[in-house]
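Troubleshooting: if your tokenizer reports a length mismatch, compare your output against this known-good record of 311 residues.
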Amino acid sequence: MDPLSHVLKLLRPESYAIRGLDAGGDWSIAFPAGEGIKCYALQSGTCWLAMDGLDQPVQIVAGDCVLLPRGHAFRFYSKPDAPSIDAIPLFSAFEVGTVAVVNGGGNCRGLGGYFTFTGLYSDLLLTMLPTIVHFQRDTDKDALRWYLERLMQELHDPHPGGVLIAQHLAQTILIQALRLHVLDDSRQGVGWLFALRDRQMSAVLAAIHDQPGQSWTLESLAALAGMSRSSFAARFNAMVGESAIGYLTRWRMHLAADRLCQFRTPVSVLADTLGYASESAFGAAFKRVIGQSPRVYLNQVATNHNAVSGI
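Known-good structure output:
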């Protein structure tokens, strides 16, 4: 499995409130700040996006798709001085998987939704992304068009099982958009997500993600990349933003935290499967990365879960 798939599997994105929008006349819809990634695509018409963290509004035209990963408040509108409608009561009046109509519709049609993560470390992905990811090149639109048209069809012509199909299509659109972002050389950055563009670094990251329990060393990872030890170490650090062994350790501990919380996997099993010779060595690495011992961490997660659940 490739690194992006590994991270998304660990984070377990869930789609919520996938709805269409059909707006007419002068309109403006304000969305509050919130967690997760928002994803919107415009099927027809033109509108503008204004958001905290952006210096200028961004024009969105038919076929464009935007990801908003930072949780800022934002507003879509046709005219800047149009009275704003609160998005929460507006869309709450329409069932999930249906189309919200504003001012009779007819001028601007699109769809959107947001994705939250049930996994523990959404920052593994979200910190790699800018305030807005705007897909407006023809090649990107072509890559997303089929999924968008199929999703719009499910929303406009509902059939049994349509809500579930729409949710799966929405997740596919999210993954496809992230893939396009990764492969776009014009988008610069430092981190594991950007390093996937590099053939040698991608091979190393894939090996770390596929075999986290392997006894990797700097030498063996450099050999996998076909580079000298020193050249590999410098290049990995420059592209990913941390050392190769540091990244390996951090990935192991994220996996350990997930397995500890999801499956109550014993520490002895985690230590053995993640490449540690003893529980004490594993525990020291866990505390260094996560900030707590495995036992304290598990107790805290359980306490937080019970508080949220009202237990």
